[in-house]
Amino acid sequence: MASLSCSASDLVTLLGGVPNATDAADYICGRFEAISNKFIETGYAVDNTYLLFSAYLVFAMQLGFAMLCAGSVRAKNTMNIMLTNVIDAAAGGLFYYIFGFAIAFGTPSNGFIGKHFFGLTEFPTESFEYSFFLFQWAFAIAAAGITSGSIAERTQFIAYLIYSSFLTGLVYPIVSHWFWSTDGWASPARSENLLFGSGVIDFAGSGVVHLVGAIAGLWGAYIEGPRIGRFDHAGQSVALRGHSGTLVVLGTFLLWFGWYGFNPGSFVTILKAYGESGSFYGQWSAVGRTAVTTTLAGCTAALTTLFGKRLLSGHWNVTDVCNGLLGGFAAITGGCSVVDPWAAVLCGFVASWVLIGCNKLAEKLHYDDPLEAAQLHGGCGSWGIIFTALFAKKEYVNEVYPGLPGRPYGLVMGGGARLLAAHAVQILVVVGWPRTHKDQ
């Protein structure tokens, strides 16, 4: 953060023949510097408070996951699924502290994996505060929370403990290093050798969080197989409905609330002007826009699912609407900061149909996911990655990712296909990465 400057020698000249001009100039500049430092310290405090508050919101999503999972499973499995959600946070906290953060953000490093800050040694630094660790830990356990839904009702507790710890300590951190660390091989913040001249714009994690969690859960559910009774002897689908719509709705609203930390909070800082100092427009405006795009995508997906499922099945279903809403949020997460509100509406509309289509496909393939987590976070997350590559606006991309003249932006917005190519690579490597660990 730049400081204001005062030159005592220049000030002496301006004071002219005033008695003790040199002493007066030194005193004035000293007071000026002290005030300047207070502004700098206040700026750091504001940014860290903003990030801490965002981290608290993201952590509150764990309660949302717990309620959503509890309501979506049968009553006999409620305590088990809630225990797995507690374990995600607790075990995830230790493993992310010891290994995960260093692997994800330890710098300097190579493009594949971080190499510093294991156990938060040599911390904090000029680049990273403790608030940043807390924020990223909340993201890591959110990815694990997605996985817990996919393999609900048929997983031994010890097996899940190992699975969750491995995900938060290694699998997820490596992917977040690729796309979010300044050293990552596909990061938009990398100073050189950008993927297709752009890197991947996955602002809050449609791919890094949602697709990673979905693929990890998908392979877990595939290995375990469907729940007993999920498909009859003729191969027809049998609904095993969750026991509490009330908990599903409560969990959905808690997740909605937490998403305002998840997406807008990913700016990390808020006290930053765009353009000339003193302007009403700055990063605080982008934060507000991101909250709006997040809201509109979720709302559109919820209403589209409501009427779409009514047309397809002939009845209203609150669980379907809640999942549609969350699918819209998962889709907009990647591009929430770089698209206009009207594009967010389109994102939510398509996300709803992507979720419906993925559920139909899962049923045909006899894939069993009690919370539709792999379909929701994987299908809608993948759409969100493609959506960003199509609709990212040049002005917003340059504001959020400054320093690279001519950076590619959305194909539909006239920015060419290079960003789309980078995002196609992201989908391929994210889908392939958790799969390499499915037998571990």
Automatic annotation (TrEMBL):
<dbReference type="InterPro" id="IPR024041">
    <property type="entry name" value="NH4_transpt_AmtB-like_dom"/>
</dbReference>
<feature type="transmembrane region" description="Helical">
    <location>
        <begin position="244"/>
        <end position="262"/>
    </location>
</feature>
<keyword id="KW-1133">Transmembrane helix</keyword>
<dbReference type="InterPro" id="IPR001905">
    <property type="entry name" value="Ammonium_transpt"/>
</dbReference>
<comment type="similarity">
    <text>Belongs to the ammonia transporter channel (TC 1.A.11.2) family.</text>
</comment>
<keyword id="KW-0472">Membrane</keyword>
<dbReference type="InterPro" id="IPR018047">
    <property type="entry name" value="Ammonium_transpt_CS"/>
</dbReference>
<dbReference type="GO" id="GO:0008519">
    <property type="term" value="F:ammonium channel activity"/>
</dbReference>
<dbReference type="GO" id="GO:0097272">
    <property type="term" value="P:ammonium homeostasis"/>
</dbReference>
<feature type="transmembrane region" description="Helical">
    <location>
        <begin position="412"/>
        <end position="433"/>
    </location>
</feature>
<dbReference type="InterPro" id="IPR029020">
    <property type="entry name" value="Ammonium/urea_transptr"/>
</dbReference>
<feature type="transmembrane region" description="Helical">
    <location>
        <begin position="200"/>
        <end position="223"/>
    </location>
</feature>
<feature type="transmembrane region" description="Helical">
    <location>
        <begin position="48"/>
        <end position="70"/>
    </location>
</feature>
<dbReference type="GO" id="GO:0005886">
    <property type="term" value="C:plasma membrane"/>
</dbReference>
<keyword id="KW-0812">Transmembrane</keyword>
<feature type="transmembrane region" description="Helical">
    <location>
        <begin position="158"/>
        <end position="180"/>
    </location>
</feature>
<dbReference type="Pfam" id="PF00909">
    <property type="entry name" value="Ammonium_transp"/>
</dbReference>
<feature type="transmembrane region" description="Helical">
    <location>
        <begin position="127"/>
        <end position="146"/>
    </location>
</feature>
<keyword id="KW-0924">Ammonia transport</keyword>
<keyword id="KW-0813">Transport</keyword>
<feature type="domain" description="Ammonium transporter AmtB-like">
    <location>
        <begin position="50"/>
        <end position="433"/>
    </location>
</feature>
<feature type="transmembrane region" description="Helical">
    <location>
        <begin position="82"/>
        <end position="107"/>
    </location>
</feature>
<protein>
    <recommendedName>
        <fullName>Ammonium transporter</fullName>
    </recommendedName>
</protein>
